[in-house]
């Protein structure tokens, strides 16, 4: 295969260096990334940076609360973040491509995901584009990963996560592992983002994998 340095999504899996002009190249599908207003907006920012570096096409939706947290928790500007995406949608744009199942994507990551958005997804309460796009992923049986961030949880939160899991979504709270001996906060963030990208079929080298003792 010719090395064209391009990430291709094929049957839900992203592979590197697909031959230029091959059938696979025609099947490149975007990944939907949503940032919501939970603490840890940096997880969404980091996911976007990595996907941008890997040349995975990202369709981005940012909630108002996520934009606020970007200001509170980081030094990033909204315009900086948006510049990394292939396409950016307004959260109120219910006529956007990703609001329809006929628009093909390789799935969606919500990072971080608030309890509010989790609740809306669990109940198919599709009153904004993030929740509608997530609901489309579930109905089309596409991969949906929610990096739910809250602590502690009450029984209602756990019920919502159970419901989304039953619908086919994957709950992946950003809970760090330490077997890769993280030295920095960035190492901890990359490990969680790496786990999410694993589930979305994106090849990466964000952390050192456990390979036995
Ligand atoms: C600094 C800050 C941190 C927050 N952290 C969380 C959190 O970790 N989890 C959560 O569910 N909500 C959190 N919230 C509350 C949400 O932002 C709020 O419920 C908002 O309405 C969520 O809207 P969205 O899901 O459309 O982004 C936080 C709010 C602020 C201002």
Automatic annotation (TrEMBL):
Catalysed reactions listed for this entry: dimethylallyl phosphate + FMNH2 = prenylated FMNH2 + phosphate
Residues in Flavoprotein domain copies: 31-197
One matching Pfam family: Flavoprotein
GO molecular function, one term: flavin prenyltransferase activity
Enzyme Commission no: 2.5.1.129
UniProt cross-references to HAMAP family, sorted A to Z: ubiX_pad
Family assignment from sequence similarity: Belongs to the UbiX/PAD1 family.
Protein name (record): Flavin prenyltransferase UbiX
Lineage summary: Bacteria, Pseudomonadati, Thermodesulfobacteriota, Desulfobacteria, Desulfobacterales
């Amino acid at each position: 295969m010719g090395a064209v340095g391009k990430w291709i999504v094929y049957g839900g899996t992203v592979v590197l260096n697909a031959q230029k002009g091959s059938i696979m190249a025609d099947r490149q599908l975007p990944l939907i990334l949503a940032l919501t207003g939970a603490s840890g907006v940096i997880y969404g920012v980091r996911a976007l940076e990595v996907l941008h570096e890997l040349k995975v096409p990202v369709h981005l939706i940012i909630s108002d609360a996520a934009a606020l947290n970007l200001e509170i928790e980081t030094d990033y500007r909204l315009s900086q973040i948006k510049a990394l995406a292939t396409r950016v949608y307004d959260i109120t744009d219910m006529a956007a491509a990703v609001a329809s199942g006929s628009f093909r994507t390789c799935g969606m990551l919500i990072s971080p995901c608030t309890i509010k958005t989790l609740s809306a997804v669990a109940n198919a309460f599709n009153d904004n584009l993030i929740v509608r796009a997530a609901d489309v992923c579930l109905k089309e049986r596409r991969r949906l990963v929610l990096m739910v961030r809250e602590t502690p949880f009450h029984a209602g939160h756990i019920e919502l996560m159970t419901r989304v899991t039953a619908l086919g979504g994957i709950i992946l709270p950003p809970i760090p592992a330490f077997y890769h001996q993280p030295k920095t906060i960035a190492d901890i963030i990359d490990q969680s983002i790496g786990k999410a990208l694993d589930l979305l079929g994106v090849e990466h080298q964000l952390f050192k994998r456990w390979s036995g003792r």
